[in-house]
Amino acid sequence: MPRTAIALASALAVVLTACGGGGTKKTATTPRARTPVATATTAPAVIATPGVRIPNVAPDTSISLPQGFTAYDVADGFKNPTSIALAPDRSAYVSDAGGTVYRLADANGDGVFEQSPKFASGFKTITGLMVAPDGTLYVSSTSKVTTVRDTNGDGTGDEKHDIITGLPTGRHQNNGLAIGPDSKLYITNGSTCDDCVEQDERSASILQANIDGSLLRVYAGGLRNPYDLLFDDRGRLWASDNGSDAPCATIDELDLIVAGGDYGWPYGSKGCDPYTAGTPPVADLGLHTAATGLAIYNGSEFPATYRGDFFITLWGDLGFTPQRAGHILVRVTIDESSGTPKGTTETFGTGFSAPIDVVVDRDGSLLVLDYGTGKLYRIVYTG
User: Are 293 and 127 in contact (CB under 8 A)?
Assistant: First the structure.
């Protein structure tokens, strides 16, 4: 079960709570607000580059980053958080594995989320969130996709509609969500097993539907457990995918997804060579690393060399490998000089317990969600 095959699917809440991911098990059900530092001398001095917003809390020195970068704990107390999504009104949503969505607000604009009330609940194992341009929240939970709206403006989702139901689940489930340049809805859906022939073609695939959930179809297949997905500024679709545990051990991947593409799963029938008939990955994310959240850096606060690079959270193994695998944030640089994208992966951040999602905030900082510690970190470039 390394690669969080079960832990990142329908049994995620049970398996990871039991295993702990190396982090502290939380007992609170409502996240607590962060307390800003009392004075400028409370935290070690950090000098910002122009335009950078330094959170009004002390740096979190448990997170190691490249020189010039600093991490801050800007929201915590979540119990096994799974996904984060930014909203047009500058708020953010965070889900937990138990089925609750919180709405985070930074009321005074100091980079710290002081408010985190419940927005919606009653879901089964949420592993994906997305906010549409009109502010509608899309929730990917076990076997279904649901829209949630706050129709009366009281900060709570009061209108819920299941727009897709009955998706195949088992060892894995439906996870990440994205809206394409074609205004279609795209959904990752993992396999029901580790390595088998699926009875439902929607398993181990990327699905496409209209924005209202209608006309659901398979867009691409052969992906054992695609977890997150996004579109780049050229309209290309990318996804993180978790490789197989047994009988074949195959790497986690960053894949460029094309319509009708086959990415090689199941592997056993191909003699443990996933690319005999499938499309090779763009980047190797390692064995048993549990690739989860995915973001492309499109901000202007990091050095120019980071523009267009991927940041990917590697949730980590559960101790099944001789050496600890994953539990880090990686940077993937894409070289397209040959005409075929090729990624180079390097470690960007360590000290996490089980990082599970990453997004680029509007100010150009990174927000990294840690399942194991229940914390939301903001990573800032301070030069």
Answer: no
Q: What is the DSSP letter of 34?
A: P
What CA–CA distance (Å, rounded) separates 84 from 313?
Answer: 12
Q: Which two tokens stand for residue 132?
A: 């549409």
Residue with tokens 């319509």: 259
Q: Which amino acid is at 277?
A: A
Rounded to an integer, what distance in angstroms lies between the CA atom of residue 257 and that of residue 236? Answer: 7
- Residue 22: what residue type? G
347 is written with which tokens?
């470690």
Note the pLDDT tens digit of each residue in 203-218.
999 999 999 999 999 9
- Lowest-confidence region among 10-14, 98-102, 271-275: 10-14
DSSP string of 35-65, one letter each residue: PPPSSTTTSPP-PPPTT----SS-B-TTSB-
Q: How many CA atoms lie within 13 A of 295 on its CB side?
A: 29
Q: Is the pLDDT of residue 24 over 60?
A: no
Continuous segment of H or E residues that includes residue 205: strand 205-209
